Amino acid sequence: MLSTLVFAPTAVALLLLALPRRTPAKVIRGIWVATAAGLMAATVILWAGYDPGGGMQYETRARWIPSAGVGYHVGVDGLSLPMLALTCVLFLACAVYAWREDRRVREFAALFLFLETTCLGVFVSLDLILFFVFFDLSIVGMYFVIAGWGHKDRARAALMFFLYTFLGSLALLLGFIGLYLAASPHTFDIVDLTAANPLAGRAGYAGLVLLAIGIGLAVKTPTVPFHTWLPLAHTEAPAAGSAILAGVLLKMGTYGFLRIAMPILPDVWRQYATVVVILGVICILYGALVALAQSDFKRMIAYTSVNHMGYIILAIGAAAATADTSRQAQSLAVTGAVTQMVSHGLLTGALFLLAGALYERGRTYDMDAYSGIAAKAPVFTGMTAIAAFASLGLPGFSGFIAEFQIFTGSLGPRPLATSLSVLGILLTAGLFLRALQKIFLGPLRLPDAPGTPRPFSDLRAHENTAVVPLLALAVVVGIVPRFLLDVIEPASIAVLELLAR
Amino acid sequence: MTEMNENPLDILPEIFLVAGAVLGLLLGSWLPRHRQWITGALAATACTAGIIAAAVTSPGPAASTFGDAYALDPLTNAGRIIILGGGLIVLALSLRPLHADPREAEFYVLIQLALLGAMVLAGAQDLLLLAAGYLLASIPAYTLAGFRKDGPGTEAALKYYVVGALLGVVMLAGITVLYATGRATSYLALDGALDDTPQGLLAVGTLGLLAGLLFKAGAVPAHYWIPDAVQGSAPPAAALIATLPKIGALAALFRLGAVPLDAEPLPWAALIAVLAAASMTLGNLAAFFQSDVKRLLAYSTISQVGYLLMAVAVAAATGRAQSALLYYLAAYTVTNLGAFAVVCALPGAARIDDYRGLARRRPLLTASLVVCLLGLLGTPPTAVFVGKLEVFTATIDGGYTWLAVLAAVNTVASLFYYLRWIMPALAHSSRPTPPPRESRTARAVAYTCAALSLAIGVTAGPVLDLLSGPMSR
């Protein structure tokens, strides 16, 4: 079941590439949207059949390269199921959003379907090498999206993206090899490694392995100081690419911390939790401050991603902080972190798609070039305002649920760090309000750049169809979050039990 | 050495190649020019028969034949299959450009002799046979490098020859010294005999021996002939020179490190590790701003040899080194020849810029190029990824973590120049493309290699099982 879900998009991608060259673009877009919708439906069925208290489910385990300790092992639990659903939702939104894409549609659709396979694959993998294969392929796929369909400086941005994240993935590989050699019998299986806890009592070795894995995941997340690839990649990527990059690919980093680093290396994770917390606070404040200084709308959203991912880092650091804090507070922090992943995925995805709509109309992301758009495009204004308010953590939206849990869970063990982090919320509030004011309020002024012949039109149907569900889901999670939290909570308690060993 | 073990069936693959070469030479003298391809077909038959013979004898226990001179073990057999398989690919690549060439038959004969030399290097278990293998692998390759008789070809052959002759003599001197030190040339006899010998002599002998083998492997510091030889020779010959002799040389180095030089007082493993580090780093740095595709591939092979030498460095330290080396060799051969096949398919495109807009014209060929280049980088699920995984694991297991870290950093660095080639191929071409002079056979070979590279990667499990097994010692 899971394997079909993971590999179906690639199969469709190959089919698309095999279609005759004269196939009309409409057919290709139709197949793409239908596939994404089908995957979405499959995930809903998966979710419906999932038993929240049942641990790992839908497992498949097969031999792959037994002599190297590599197996094909997939399954879902409360950490991965929300990520799967998020992936499917975002890819469906991107498929709908790209309805008007007319540059090499076939390749674009095939690439996105392939990317969907890699993203789903990362979240269901229960073998380190399988995880790595999908992790690495997601980089390759995104590289081609940026290099092929990006804006002006795409070649440099794509190269930077590939180099940085590839460096991260090789660090990750070295860490995985370290884990493999430490376990006896040698294995790459995440479940077996978690059960064996092979590095208990070997602090030096475990520290090095955690360093390698930590760097690998931190580049992807990205945390300061490994974030420098992110603004450029985001600015140059096409809108749908940015949405996937921020919405799904970044989550692979934090998901990796929860799935691999914390359960397999509990001792050293507890030992270095303070470092993680400090990194989280730096991300939160630095991301927010740099975002505040941007005049480029897309770059600003990119830096708020650094800020939002910082909350997750803070939470997973604080969850391990001390033994004397109550289990409930720790559980709140981890649950908040997973909720934040979902929430950030939905909201940043929506924001990047809206930024793409802005660019399509004005051919620039420069906020100073726009003014008073609210009069021309009320729906666009409303959507962006909702996404921005949700993103800054207004109650009633998913961001609030996530950040509230993170702060409540982290305040007990890490009062200073948490209070500093709350400043981040203030800063993001400030920068979003400033951006809204600049672009949408005031006298009407539109960029007078070449390539903008049409007047500024409001959101079109396909753009609405892509963005509205994302925002609606954010509201649903914000108002009735139990359906999500019921799935996450048992899993986060399981992670904490593993961490407390 | 006690009983008669001179069974010619043990060296059937080698015999097939010799027979193919001799018959080819005779046939070539009588056949009309447009039928000379028959000698090529004969060569391909010899290679295929050799692969079958090697595969059939594979499962047997490790043994020696012809005294202790020639080893029959997984290292020899896998070496044979990889070299012959690579030979088949090179033959397929040469079929078109050499069709009805006045010296077509000679080309195929030379290819077979070069393959034979590489195979002897891989299986030799005696220093004198190793020297014979060295000469057999080198001399046909010099001729192949200068086969076109044009300016760059002559320069390539001359450089190749001068360096090869010099280092060959050094190697012979080293062998002489080792013979004097250990009083034997057979590895099995040397194993143990070298332990309490004068260290100075041993060091001189080993370094001399190493010089020749590093030349064949194309590793630093004996690497500087590769870029000129590869750039100057015809694409099919370049593919052979850059890929196949290495296999024999690396297998020979591995055998030396695992059998006679494993416990001797010299820091053999550390020396190889340093050479590996130097090879991968220098090869990568030099490849950075190359704009000629053959030269870029040449420097990339130097860095690949660095990764391969990692497995050689830990040959004695860990049991997983052998399958790691052999798997990486197989993966590398297929992938590198795939990249060369793309070069052969577009004989008119010598520089990276000539690939601009290729994706529009030849989507499948571009896909093969991307698979092969990203494969050389070690992107999953291509074969080199599993090879790198195995080699890194073996290296860390063998205690050389710093080398594995350096290799990882180098891998990231190599991404830069592979992407420099991929990027224009995918980009939109602004200027009209020159009338394509393209080879359909080479294109098919490129597709096959890319598909094989993926297939070996996905089915790594059974392949790896075949490659492990005790060495003859």
From TrEMBL, chain A:
GO terms for cellular component: endomembrane system; membrane. InterPro entries: NADH_Q_OxRdtase_chainM/4 (IPR010227), NADH_UbQ_OxRdtase (IPR003918), ND/Mrp_TM (IPR001750). The keyword Transmembrane helix applies. Keywords: Membrane, Transmembrane, Transmembrane helix. GO terms for biological process: ATP synthesis coupled electron transport; electron transport coupled proton transport. GO terms for molecular function: NADH dehydrogenase (ubiquinone) activity; NADH dehydrogenase activity; ubiquinone binding. PANTHER family: NADH-UBIQUINONE OXIDOREDUCTASE CHAIN 4. The chain crosses the membrane at residues 30-50, 70-100, 120-146, 158-183, 203-219, 239-260, 272-293, 300-321, 341-359, 379-404, 416-436, 466-485. Residues 125-425 form the NADH:quinone oxidoreductase/Mrp antiporter transmembrane domain. Coiled coil: none annotated. Pfam families: Proton_antipo_M (PF00361). Belongs to the complex I subunit 4 family. It comes from the Bacteria. Its main location: membrane. This is NuoM family protein. It is a multi-pass membrane protein. It is found in: Endomembrane system; Membrane. The lineage of its organism: Bacteria, Bacillati, Actinomycetota, Actinomycetes, Kitasatosporales.
UniProtKB/TrEMBL annotation, chain B:
GO terms for molecular function: NADH dehydrogenase (quinone) (non-electrogenic) activity; NADH dehydrogenase (ubiquinone) activity; quinone binding. Pfam families: Proton_antipo_M. It catalyses: a quinone + NADH + 5 H(+)(in) = a quinol + NAD(+) + 4 H(+)(out). It is a multi-pass membrane protein. It is found in: Cell membrane; Endomembrane system; Membrane. Residues 124-412 form the NADH:quinone oxidoreductase/Mrp antiporter transmembrane domain. It is an enzyme of class 7 (translocase). GO terms for biological process: ATP synthesis coupled electron transport. Keywords: Cell membrane, Membrane, NAD, Quinone, Translocase, Transmembrane, Transmembrane helix, Transport. GO terms for cellular component: endomembrane system; plasma membrane. Its EC number is 7.1.1.-. The chain crosses the membrane at residues 12-31, 38-58, 78-95, 107-124, 130-148, 160-181, 201-225, 237-256, 268-289, 296-319, 325-352, 364-387, 399-423, 444-464. The keyword Translocase applies. Belongs to the complex I subunit 2 family. HAMAP family: NDH1_NuoN_1. NDH-1 is composed of 14 different subunits. Subunits NuoA, H, J, K, L, M, N constitute the membrane sector of the complex. NDH-1 shuttles electrons from NADH, via FMN and iron-sulfur (Fe-S) centers, to quinones in the respiratory chain. The immediate electron acceptor for the enzyme in this species is believed to be a menaquinone. Couples the redox reaction to proton translocation (for every two electrons transferred, four hydrogen ions are translocated across the cytoplasmic membrane), and thus conserves the redox energy in a proton gradient. This is NADH-quinone oxidoreductase subunit N. The gene is nuoN.
